[in-house]
Design goal:
By secondary structure, this protein is of the alpha+beta class. Helix content is 33%, strand content 14%. The protein is built from eleven helices and twelve strands. The strands form three sheets. Strands 2-1-12-11-10-9-8-7 form an eight-stranded antiparallel sheet, sandwiched between helices. A hairpin with a 7-residue loop joins strand 4 and strand 5. Helix 2 runs antiparallel to helix 11 and helix 3 crosses helix 8. The N terminus is likely disordered.
């Protein structure tokens, strides 16, 4: 498939753009686990990779605290056939929004920010019409901010030059002449602009660049040594190659098609399954901020991540609750050109699942594939909750 066609087929030039509606699913209580569960999970992953339009590779890391299981299928690089590994780099897409939440909530815990701080107070240079929007509303996608990545001018630049270098701190300029989409706090609507504004508020409150805040407040405390927020398009080695997949055609390697300056705090982070495991356990488990922020974060409203995670989705502050047939986990999803992500942990943060696929899967690209993926994710959650077999 030609590169230009790949970009047009990807959801908003692979920038995770979606207007989300709640997706609900429910099921019976979990059954008693059997040793056959391990084999069935592997079979599901193998079938997913072999399916028409399926990803060239998937990797799932189930961390039980004292034991870790790694399940893989397919090839991280279709040229060599090498399987994916937990230390392979990958684009984490909108799961990067959880990192901006971690920064904001850690600063709130330290008193540098308040969840009720407004754009008028922290970022007076932004349009006056946006002034009443609070940090809390940005983190929960109830701000009403227009999504910069839906701007025709922004899209045109991406299509003309996918590696165009944007000024990441001026991305909101693309929609600065637009009003709010709705009264702040009145409803849920996912917007990439929200997390750009969160990062800018963090910088304004501290006088420190967002990249440094990530290092000091998230990477260092959690020991994330292979996680970064690049501006360019190069992937650090080793990495899982991301592909555009079209039935009847060979997968097209799109790992280094897009520059990250145009997504920045809304989806530009590169990490590994091993680092994402450490991140989600620390983020959900309370390693980065205190009880007051945790309580505020877990005031759930109806709202789905993109793509929808397993079970019934609800939104907190830079965190989603996924109520599955086997219980609830907290986490985030994401998708971008070449990659789709799901990371979640049990409410105490002691157990986690990280699931990564090496193509973009969302409602716009293949709604049926999304549902197949959600079933796999729910089965992985059940395997996590039930515990490892002896």
């Amino acid at each position: 498939m030609p590169l230009r066609s790949s970009l047009r087929a990807a959801s908003v030039a692979a920038l995770c753009v979606a207007v989300l509606t709640p997706v609900t699913a429910s099921g019976p209580a979990s059954a008693t686990p059997t040793r056959g569960d391990d084999h069935r999970l592997q079979e599901q992953l193998d079938r997913f990779v072999r399916s028409e339009g399926g990803p060239p590779a998937v990797i799932a890391v189930l961390d039980y605290g004292r034991k870790t299981r790694v399940l893989t299928a397919g090839a991280a690089d279709v040229r060599t056939g090498r399987p994916p590994r937990p230390d392979d780099h990958m684009r984490i897409a909108s799961t990067a929004k959880a990192f901006s939440g971690a920064v904001a909530l850690a600063l709130a815990d330290r008193g540098a920010l308040d969840l009720d701080d407004t754009l008028r107070h922290r970022l007076p240079q932004l349009p006056k019409a946006w002034g009443a929007v609070t940090l809390r509303q940005l983190l929960q996608h109830t701000s009403g901010l227009p999504d910069y990545s839906e701007s025709p001018a922004f899209r045109a630049e991406i299509i003309a030059d996918p590696r165009h270098h944007f000024d990441s701190r001026r991305l909101l300029d693309y929609v600065a002449d637009e009003p709010l989409r709705f009264t702040p706090g009145s409803r849920y609507q996912y917007s990439n602009s929200d997390n750009i504004a969160v990062a800018l508020m963090a910088e304004a409150a501290t006088g420190t660049r967002y990249e440094r805040l990530l290092r000091d407040l998230v990477y260092a405390p959690l020991g994330l040594h292979r996680t970064s927020l690049p501006q360019g398009y190069r992937m650090p080695k080793p990495y899982m190659h991301g592909y555009a997949v079209e039935p009847g055609a060979a997968p097209e390697d799109v790992s280094e098609v897009l520059g990250m300056s145009g997504v920045w705090a809304s989806g530009g982070i590169v990490s590994t399954p091993a680092d994402m495991t450490r991140f989600i356990q620390g983020y959900v488990g309370g390693a980065l901020f205190g009880g007051r922020e945790i309580h505020a974060q877990r005031r759930w409203i109806e709202g789905s991540s993109e793509p929808a995670g397993p079970g019934h989705n609800r939104a907190g502050l830079a965190l989603f609750r996924y109520d599955t047939r086997c219980g609830a986990v907290f986490g985030h999803t994401g998708n971008t050109l070449g990659y789709t992500q799901f990371v979640a942990a049990t409410p105490d943060g002691r157990r986690s699942v990280t699931f990564s696929a090496t193509t973009q899967i969302n409602k716009a690209t293949d709604a049926a594939q999304v549902e197949r993926m959600r079933k796999i994710e729910e089965n992985l959650v059940c395997a996590l909750v039930r515990g490892p077999h002896a």
